[in-house]
Amino acid sequence: MNKILQLLIVDDEPLARALTREYLAKHTDINIIGEAANGLAAVEAINKLAPDLILLDIFMPKLNGLEVLELTGRSSGVIFTTAYDQYALKAFDLHAVDYLLKPFSQARFDDAIARARKLLDVPPVNIPELIADTKLERIVVRDRGQIHIVPLSEVDYVEAQDDYISIHWNGKAILKTQSLSSLEAQLDEQEFVRIHRSVIVKLSAVKYLERISKDAQVAVLHSGVKLPVSRAGYERLKVFVSQL
Fold it and tell me: Which DSSP string do the residues of 15-40 spell out, in sequence order?
């Protein structure tokens, strides 16, 4: 006899949640322990309920599905459900989760449940790779029990601090546990440039470059902040900064 699995439904569409409940009715070995209609509610529910399985929509208000995974550290027992197929091939390539493209049939749903049940016995793999391989529009940070959403459009620069990155935006700063290199891989290289081993800057935030010695320069931002520029960073930056 199969173990009774505890399942959480995460979707911002009431009709989609209703259809999922209907499809789950035939699965007597699954118990629906909760529902969430947005990403913030999903984070709270995952942390509180610790479900075996999560049916997770990707595009939702407040936080998207990938951000939910990042904030909760969830790396197994996730089935994506969404009307958009841009992540489908990547998800299957990783063999980490299943992916239901709306609208999906009862048969396709049943296959996903069966596959997810098998994967519960396999060590979790590669969901962080799916997150890291996705270009960002904002950065989400959990700090002292609160979730902060920082739009990239407001970020001036990011600097490495030991095992953290310090994100600077609108005169504020916040720390996040992440490497600068992993963040760099998620940023648009036409908008953000690594100017030093410990600094990434947004190009539009740079006002000009200033030489402070024969071999040293700093990037002066519109905010007045001065950031170190390495030789390699200078080569990357000069392609974009017209003052050079």
Answer: HHHHHHHHHHTT-TTEEEEEEESSHH
Q: CA-CA distances (angstroms) from residue 238 to 180, 205, 207, 215, 216?
A: 21, 14, 13, 15, 14
Q: Fill in the DSSP letter of residue 192.
A: E
Give pLDDT, residue 198.
96
Query: Is the dihedral angle over the CA atoms 180, 185, 191, 194 positive or is it negative?
Result: positive
Q: Are 35 and 99 spatial neighbours (Cβ–Cβ below 8 Å)?
A: no
- Number of structural domains found in the chain: 2
* Closest listed residue to residue 54, CA positions, set 65, 70, 63, 67: 65
Same domain for 115 and 148, yes or no, is no
> Residue 201: what residue type?
V
Q: What residues contact residue 54 under an 8 Å CB cut-off, 6+ apart?
A: 7, 8, 10, 42, 46, 74, 77, 78, 79
Task: Give the relative orientation of helices 65-72 and 39-49 as an angle to the nearest 10 degrees.
Answer: 30
| CATH number (domain holding residue 211) | 2.40.50.1020
The residue ranges of the chain whose pLDDT is under 50 are 93-95, 243-244
| Domain hosting residue 73, numbered range | 5-132
The reply to whether the predicted model has a pTM over 0.70 is yes
> Which pLDDT value is given to residue 224?
95
Distance CA 98, CA 78 (A): 7
Predicted local distance difference test score (pLDDT) of residue 127:
58
